[in-house]
Design a protein that fits this description.
- The chain has about 100 residues and is α+β, with helices and mostly antiparallel strands.
- It has four helices and three strands.
- About 35% of the residues lie in helices and about 20% in strands.
Length: about 100
């Protein structure tokens, strides 16, 4: 539910060339089926000339409602098309959870 909501908002505002919204809640100490931790990989020409902090702020602004409620963590990877090409279109791996053990 929230993954789709996040994706729709980002598509509407940023018109991304590439967008992947991944629910990584299962990697954290949350109940099964939770939607609280997400990773966003987005490539948009809108980011051209913007520093990383500005990119993140604009994304946080679009998702302020979700971040004020159900979404606890949002890992952002925001690139221009040129930056994405230099990374060879590789999605960065998420670090392991530093919290408590996962709930089985």
């Amino acid at each position: 539910m929230f993954r789709e909501q996040i994706e729709a908002k980002l598509r509407a505002v940023f018109a991304p060339v590439y967008l992947e919204v991944m629910n990584e809640s299962y990697r954290h100490n949350v109940p099964a089926g939770a939607e609280s931790h997400f990773k966003v990989v987005m490539v948009s020409e809108r980011f051209t000339g913007e520093r990383i902090l500005a990119r993140h702020r604009s994304i946080y602004g679009v998702l302020s409602e979700e971040l004020a409620g159900p979404v606890h963590a949002l890992a952002l990877h925001a690139y221009t098309l040129k930056e994405w090409s230099s990374l060879q279109n590789a999605v960065p791996a998420s670090p392991p959870c530093r919290g408590a053990n996962l709930i089985a």
